[in-house]
């Protein structure tokens, strides 16, 4: 199993709605795993995109969310999961992540 994409993304916390920097790994088997930092010691959560994800929203499609200070809504990404959870993210270079996430998401269809 290999990385498809790794790097820093801003993630909005679920309770306080604050933006936090997390290290993300997208694996070739479709797992998106995020950690406290790039040492990958503490997993915060993981999503198996082909199984758990029902939609990926980008830019203006992102609902009920404001981007972090100094960022455009065009840099936003939301992963909507079957269990009702929505993971809100902000990337420096969104297109790269969107392409990789959507290609893994649509492999199942």
SSE topology:
Layout: E1 3-12, E2 19-27, E3 31-35, E4 43-48, H1 49-52, E5 53-58, E6 76-81, E7 86-90, H2 94-105
Antiparallel strand pairs: 1-2, 1-7, 2-3, 3-4, 5-6, 6-7
CATH superfamily: Pleckstrin-homology domain (PH domain)/Phosphotyrosine-binding domain (PTB)
The overall strand count is 7
The figure for the number of domains is: 1
For the sheet with most strands, the description reads:
7 strands, antiparallel
Summarize the helix and strand pattern as letters.
EEEEHEEEH
Based on CA inertia axes, which overall geometry fits?
Answer: globular
**CATH architectural group:** Roll
DSSP strand content: 35-45%
Radius of gyration: 13 Å
Keywords: Membrane
Pfam family, one: PH
InterPro entries: PH-like_dom_sf (IPR011993), PH_domain (IPR001849), PLEKHB1/2 (IPR039680)
Domain PH: 2-109
Q: How would you describe this structure to a colleague?
A:
Strand 1 and strand 2 (19-27) form a beta hairpin. The model has no long low-confidence stretch (mean pLDDT 87). Helix content is 15%, strand content 43%. The protein contains 2 helices and 7 strands. The radius of gyration is 13 Å and the shape is globular. The longest helix has 12 residues, at 94-105. A 7-stranded antiparallel β-sheet has the order 4-3-2-1-7-6-5. The chain has 109 residues and is mainly beta. It has a single domain, classed as PH-domain like (Roll). It has helices at residues 49-52, 94-105; strands at 3-12, 19-27, 31-35, 43-48, 53-58, 76-81, 86-90.
């Amino acid at each position: 199993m290999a990385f498809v994409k790794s790097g820093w993304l801003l993630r909005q916390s679920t309770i306080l709605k604050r933006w936090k920097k997390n290290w993300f790994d997208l694996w070739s088997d479709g797992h998106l795993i995020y950690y406290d930092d790039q040492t990958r010691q503490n997993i915060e959560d993981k999503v198996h995109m082909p199984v758990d994800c029902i939609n990926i929203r980008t830019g203006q499609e992102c609902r009920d969310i404001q981007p972090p200070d100094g960022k455009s809504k065009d840099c936003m990404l939301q992963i909507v999961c079957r269990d009702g959870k929505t993971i809100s993210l902000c990337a420096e270079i969104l297109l790269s992540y969107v392409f990789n996430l959507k290609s893994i998401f649509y492999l199942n269809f």
